[in-house]
């Protein structure tokens, strides 16, 4: 019996050691858990806002007003517990304090937390050629849709990205649950970046956008970019950086995007396609995009078009003063009876003061808005957005 105990005592550690060979060891479960947070605080003064103040009554002018709001507040975690596996989870707490009669786009928030992103990316190749991303994230279409909300050099993101997101996913935030294959490769001065994704919870019911309904079709999205000169990014990721590289980049990137979805409860087919451009050369930062959207129903076909162009110029006045005057023009057009119709136009003129690149920024802008029809600017019955001047503070941690 003693011999048996001694044998077991010797063999047990060997068995345990052998069992360990079955598991993929983490590089570090905790070393690569990185908390992240961001804050965008706005002070705006709205002029010329109109709203329907009584049921079935006419639109009336409301008093011009000053409004302080937290335009965006985000907190979350990201990390890389394994050499080829990374993840990100982000919670949003946006539009706190937004006045109902403010000219700022978007709904008010009375205290609701929400999941903004929750995904993991697994690099399946030895280089950056192929990675799989699964979870809840942006389908990779349209630069303006997938660039971080706090990273653009206009006062806010172009309002045209809301039309693209809602046409494709049925939701203003533009996220969906699915899987995406993507990667990038560079040779000499040319870089190619690609993404192909399939998503399940999309525009399938006018009342419940996460419900499949009687009919179900997956959403398929693809995007490819070609860069000549300095690359946008050296490593593959589904997130895009700021469009200002602080006079360090000399390159141009052209992206081609498309999406397709078959029959659901509210359409027989749904398409989108277009292109986007980012140009950085010395002090100049120029970007823009144009997207065409088409929806077929049993009886008719409806078209929408949306795009913007934005330009900034870096000025170094003296130590600690890095300024960027910036202008953006946007335009949306939709057929009568489409998901959104009429016209929606915006002009944004202002200046950004970068205290620490994208991590800390002050902005002062003036925004004019006009349009008609039934869209995010007005429905010609119950509301019409005004113009506004805005002061913004952005902090990324």
TrEMBL record:
<keyword id="KW-0732">Signal</keyword>
<dbReference type="Pfam" id="PF07396">
    <property type="entry name" value="Porin_O_P"/>
</dbReference>
<dbReference type="InterPro" id="IPR010870">
    <property type="entry name" value="Porin_O/P"/>
</dbReference>
<dbReference type="InterPro" id="IPR023614">
    <property type="entry name" value="Porin_dom_sf"/>
</dbReference>
<feature type="signal peptide">
    <location>
        <begin position="1"/>
        <end position="18"/>
    </location>
</feature>
<protein>
    <submittedName>
        <fullName>Phosphate-selective porin O and P</fullName>
    </submittedName>
</protein>
């Amino acid at each position: 019996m003693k011999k048996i105990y001694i044998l077991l005592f010797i063999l047990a550690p060997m068995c345990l050691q052998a069992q360990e060979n079955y598991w993929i060891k983490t590089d570090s479960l905790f070393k690569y858990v990185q908390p992240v947070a961001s804050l965008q605080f706005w002070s705006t003064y709205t002029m010329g806002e109109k709203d329907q103040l009584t049921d079935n009554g006419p639109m009336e002018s409301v008093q011009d007003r000053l409004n302080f709001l937290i335009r965006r507040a985000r907190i979350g975690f990201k990390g890389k517990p394994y050499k080829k596996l990374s993840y990100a989870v982000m919670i949003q707490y946006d539009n706190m304090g937004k006045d109902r009669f403010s000219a700022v786009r978007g709904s008010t928030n009375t205290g609701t937390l929400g999941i903004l992103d929750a995904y993991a990316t697994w690099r399946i190749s030895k280089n950056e050629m192929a990675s799989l991303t699964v979870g809840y994230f942006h389908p990779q279409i349209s630069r303006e849709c997938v660039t971080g909300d706090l990273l653009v050099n206009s006062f806010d993101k172009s309002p045209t990205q809301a039309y693209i997101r809602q046409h494709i996913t049925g939701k203003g935030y533009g996220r969906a649950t699915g899987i995406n294959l993507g990667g990038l490769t560079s040779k000499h001065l040319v870089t190619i970046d690609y993404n192909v994704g399939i998503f399940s919870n999309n525009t399938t019911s006018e009342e419940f956008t996460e419900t499949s309904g009687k009919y179900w079709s997956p959403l398929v999205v693809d995007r490819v970019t070609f860069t000549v000169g300095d690359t946008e990014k050296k490593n593959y990721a589904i997130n895009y950086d700021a469009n200002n590289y602080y006079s360090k980049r000399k390159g141009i990137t052209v992206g081609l995007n498309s999406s397709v979805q078959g029959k659901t409860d509210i359409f027989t087919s749904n398409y989108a396609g277009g292109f986007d451009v980012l140009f950085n050369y010395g002090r100049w930062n120029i970007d823009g995009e144009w997207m065409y959207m088409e929806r077929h129903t049993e009886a008719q076909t409806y078209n929408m078009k949306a795009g913007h162009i934005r330009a900034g110029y870096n000025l170094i006045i003296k130590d600690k003063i890095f300024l960027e005057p910036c202008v953006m023009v946007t335009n949306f057009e939709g057929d009568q009876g489409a998901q959104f119709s009429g016209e929606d136009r915006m002009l944004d003129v202002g200046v950004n003061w970068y205290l620490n690149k994208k991590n800390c920024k002050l902005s002062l802008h003036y925004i004019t808005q006009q349009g008609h029809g039934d869209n995010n600017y007005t429905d010609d019955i119950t509301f019409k957005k005004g113009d506004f001047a805005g002061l913004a503070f952005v902090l990324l941690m």
